[in-house]
Amino acid sequence: MKIVEKKKLWFSISGLIILIGIGFFIYRGGLNLGIDFKGGTEVIIQIDKSFKKEDADQLIKKHAPNAVTNTVNNNQIQIRDKAEELNSAKVKDIMTDVKDKYKVDDKALVSQNEIGASVGKELTKNALIALTLAILGMLVYVAVRFKWDFGIAAIIALLHDVLITLSMYTIFNISVNSSFIAAILTIIGYSMNDTVVIFDRIRENLKSKRGSSPAEVANISIAATMSRSINTSLTTLIAIASVYVLVPSIRDFTFPLMVGIFSGAFSSIFIASPIWVMLKEWEAKKNNK
């Protein structure tokens, strides 16, 4: 199985997705930041009876076309939008339609909260700090357990997963909220775990196959761990996809998880290992000179 020798193909696939993501990022003027980062209004309405989310969405988007809606506890609907687009007048109009359709009273408006832009800036800062600390922690862990070349390859694979996930958000113009940060941190941990399994096998094979080249060692190690990586990722994806379909209220969290787990499995096999081989070959050329 020659995985490493086809590295240009694997790098091209990832590079194309990231380039498309960058194109949409430039075209749309950045990520579609939700109210957690930009500030806005959050409204929760209690309906107290079974209702179809699609019907409620149609009613709400008549007044706030860009609003993001979720069901809460199966009997509430959460509406989130920018403050200038979901003002008090529009909330009043929405409540009028909700009262007519679902026969509720004024008490159905459980809450109406505004999130200031300063809160969004603080959240953005904390999110970047959390992401930086997570990546640094992973780098230290790999550097201690393995060598510097493994650490660099693992961090590049992690950055690849983050960029792929961000690209999917820009391509499909999905709103980025606080749940996205939790998902990214989960993806980093999952991807690193997958990468470490392959690197551990590479380290073992470096000792037992001393006469083999780095590419041969990597290919043997990937072949030995590929079925485990694919099966683990596939079962996890099936579980998360089921949650995505059956629990709409947490789709903001499950969607990036699905993208990240798929990307993490891909990067562990087709990105991290070839990069490690490239670093080993560069190191060998340097020593020969």
Question: Could you characterize the architecture of this molecule?
Answer:
This protein has 2 domains: 4-33 and 119-288, Multidrug efflux transporter AcrB transmembrane domain (Multidrug efflux transporter AcrB transmembrane fold, Up-down Bundle), CATH 1.20.1640; 40-115, Alpha-Beta Plaits. 33% of the residues are buried. A hairpin with a 3-residue loop joins strand 2 and strand 3. Helices cover 71% and strands 9% of the residues. The chain is elongated and about 80 Å long. The mean pLDDT is 84. It contains 9 helices and 4 strands, in the order H-H-E-H-E-E-H-E-H-H-H-H-H. Helix 1 (7-28) crosses helix 6 (148-171), helix 5 runs parallel beside helix 7 (178-208) and helix 8 (214-246) packs antiparallel against helix 9 (251-288). It has a 4-stranded antiparallel sheet. The protein has helices spanning 7-28, 35-38, 53-61, 88-102, 117-145, 148-171, 178-208, 214-246, 251-288, and strands at 40-46, 68-72, 76-81, 109-115. It has 289 residues and is an alpha+beta fold.
Task: Give keywords.
289 residues; alpha+beta; Multidrug efflux transporter AcrB transmembrane fold; Alpha-Beta Plaits; SecD/SecF_bac
List the helices and strands and how they pair.
Layout: H1 7-28, H2 35-38, E1 40-46, H3 53-61, E2 68-72, E3 76-81, H4 88-102, E4 109-115, H5 117-145, H6 148-171, H7 178-208, H8 214-246, H9 251-288
Antiparallel strand pairs: 1-3, 1-4, 2-3
